[in-house]
């Protein structure tokens, strides 16, 4: 492993040098153990502690298949899917691995008694499999997390429609929270040159998801002048949605739960900010009944910021707790675009407000390769910035996941894998200097 790291740090190692490095038989990786699937049975979600379920193990290097790459991972990040996986909710991820393993002898590699998590990486290509022409050893890359087989016609307009669509490092094995990862080469994207390894690794999953959900025609198709209500506007997804709204000439109305988070939204350039804790919204009167007066109170607050206008788009992901309010506050003909249900997936809303006002609910999930490329390109050009707040070591991934689980974090939480320290990997210092304050916005808040 030291030889790999030395080659990366030397900055003048050639592709041939990387291709000639003998790969180790094993590497360190953050894993879940199949025989611990039931370890949290009977506990409430908030009491399930990722520090207990996430392990740092030595694992065997997987065999490299056609169309794949082994990548030396310098840094990765924690996503909410790391939290879901680590608390075995809503289901254990080992079911995904078993199902994938039934597809072919090659996918059988993924069905193991351990699951290596992680859906982001920044690093260097070590080996490519048969049939790969676009990438070579030594390339500095980030990876998006869409894994597709594309053997069916269904995915050929939009790869997210592939019946064998999976999220790498969540529904597949050999993820990015490790020293080496296995990806399909159609997951690879050029690493933004002005960013450190940990900064470059942090946008991937949430940036691509927010791009499709808000900007792409496959999502809400946001346009200039739109009012966009963004739940969790300083969180993983929301911190990118806020940037896309601002960069695209729309007006974000940011919902957060503390003054510190409101301050971050202001630093990004947002002016309309609602502190849901300070306002004390209570959309549910009890377990089964919502309070439409609270929906109206939110709607009135929004109109104070917009000069009386309602929102064109709601960027939804909290789910059950907020969905009734989201449908209510959307303008006539507007769009509620949802990619998640953090607070519960059985939603309830008053359908009269949907059909009578001709609103649309659009489901969105990750992004296709083109959308992920476009989202990464905007980061590489310095138009969208990483929202990294804190960085942990691979050993501390359990704590990093607990922070996200307890909503104690801002933006994204990074993890150093092979990188010995923060701050390495910058190749374009001029572009970095131009955007340094924006790159560091979320740090040390
Ligand atoms: N389908 C996909 O492709 C996809 C991709 C990425 C993420 N996701 C899912 O989307 C969800 C959010 O992911 P993330 O990375 O943005 O997580 P995150 O970093 O935890 O941010 C979510 C934010 O939502 C807000 N929030 C949480 N619970 C809420 C509630 N009950 N009511 C109102 N606001 C609430 C919080 O902000 P405040 O406390 O400041 O309000 C929190 O910071 C997760 O469930 C994740 O699994 C789905």
TrEMBL record:
Highest rank taxon of the organism: Bacteria
Keyword field contains Oxidoreductase: yes
InterPro entries tied to this protein: ADH-like_C, ADH-like_N, Crot_CoA_red, ER, GroES-like_sf, NAD(P)-bd_dom_sf, Zinc-ADH_QOR/CCCR
Domain Enoyl reductase (ER): 49-415
Record-listed E.C. numbers: 1.3.1.86
Class in the EC hierarchy, top level: oxidoreductase
GO molecular function: crotonyl-CoA reductase activity
Bilayer-crossing regions: none
Key words of the record: NADP, Oxidoreductase
Gene3D superfamilies: Medium-chain alcohol dehydrogenases, catalytic domain
PANTHER family listed in its UniProt record: QUINONE OXIDOREDUCTASE
Full protein name: Crotonyl-CoA reductase
């Amino acid at each position: 492993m030291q030889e790999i790291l030395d080659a990366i740090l030397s900055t003048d190692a050639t592709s041939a040098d990387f291709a000639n490095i003998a790969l180790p038989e094993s590497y360190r990786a953050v894993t879940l153990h199949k025989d611990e699937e039931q370890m949290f049975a009977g506990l409430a979600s908030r009491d399930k502690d990722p520090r207990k379920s996430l392990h740092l193990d030595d694992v065997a290097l997987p065999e490299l298949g056609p169309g794949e790459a082994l990548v030396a991972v310098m840094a990765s990040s924690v996503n909410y899917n790391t939290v879901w996986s680590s608390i075995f909710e809503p289901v254990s991820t080992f079911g995904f691995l078993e199902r994938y393993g039934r597809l072919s002898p090659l996918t059988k590699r993924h069905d193991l008694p351990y699951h290596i998590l992680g859906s982001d990486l920044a690093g260097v290509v070590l080996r490519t499999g048969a049939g790969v022409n676009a990438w070579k050893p030594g390339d500095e890359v980030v990876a998006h997390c869409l894994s597709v087989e594309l053997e069916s016609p269904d995915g050929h307009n939009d790869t997210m429609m592939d019946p064998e669509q999976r999220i790498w490092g969540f529904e597949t094995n050999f993820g990015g929270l490790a020293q080496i990862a296995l990806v399909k080469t159609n997951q690879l994207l050029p690493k933004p040159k002005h960013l450190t390894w940990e900064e470059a690794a942090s946008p991937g999953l949430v940036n691509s998801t927010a791009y499709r959900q808000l900007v792409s025609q496959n999502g809400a198709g946001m346009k200039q002048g739109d009012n966009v209500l963004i739940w969790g506007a300083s969180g993983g997804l929301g911190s990118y949605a806020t940037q896309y709204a601002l960069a695209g000439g729309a007006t974000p109305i940011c919902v957060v739960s503390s003054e510190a988070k409101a301050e971050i939204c202001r630093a990004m350039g947002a002016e309309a900010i609602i502190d849901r804790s300070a306002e004390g919204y209570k959309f549910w009167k009890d377990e089964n009944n919502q309070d439409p007066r609270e929906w109206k109170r939110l709607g009135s607050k929004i109109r104070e910021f917009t000069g009386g206008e309602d929102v064109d788009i709601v960027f939804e992901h909290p789910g059950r707790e907020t969905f009734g309010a989201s449908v209510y506050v959307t303008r006539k003909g507007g769009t509620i675009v949802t990619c998640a249900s953090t607070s519960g997936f059985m939603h309830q809303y008053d359908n009269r407000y949907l059909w009578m006002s001709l609103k649309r609910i659009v489901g969105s999930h990750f992004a296709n390769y083109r959308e992920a490329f476009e989202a990464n390109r905007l980061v590489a050009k310095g138009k969208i910035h990483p929202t990294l707040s804190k960085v942990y070591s691979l050993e501390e991934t359990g704590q990093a996941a607990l922070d996200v689980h307890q909503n104690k974090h801002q933006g994204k939480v990074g993890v150093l894998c092979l990188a010995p320290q923060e701050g390495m990997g910058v190749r374009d210092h001029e572009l970095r200097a131009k955007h340094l304050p924006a790159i560091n916005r979320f740090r040390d808040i």
